[in-house]
Every structure is written in C-alpha cells, then in structure tokens.
Predict the 3D structure of the following.
Amino acid sequence: MLLAGPMTAPASEGLAAAVEFVGAIYGLLVGCTLTVIALSAIVLRLINDAVDHTWDSFSF
C-alpha cells in the first residue's frame, strides 16, 4: 500500500491534465465552428442583400 499511494497521485494528475487539454481543444473547435457559422451567415446575408438590390434595379 505504501507503493500504491505515490503511484496513483501522478497518474490522476496526468489524467486530469489530459482531460483539461482535451476540453480546451474541444472548446476551441466549438468556438471556431460557431464563429465560422456566424461569419458565414453574415456574408451570405450581405450577398443576398446585394443580389436583391441588383435585381430590384432592373426594370422590365
């Protein structure tokens, strides 16, 4: 039991660090994905408005 004590502490700390690292990477991926979605929505809205304005300027 004396040998088990020191061995479990670094392993649990390593696991906690790994979980924290994976969580940080996951958070970055989610944040970047949401940012790309938001920017894409803005750009598509601008393109849609420009196309609508262009078509409205034609008189048939």
Notes: The chain has a mean pLDDT of 83. The two ends are 90 Å apart (CA to CA). DSSP finds one helix and no strands in the chain. Residues 4-57 form the longest helix (54 residues).
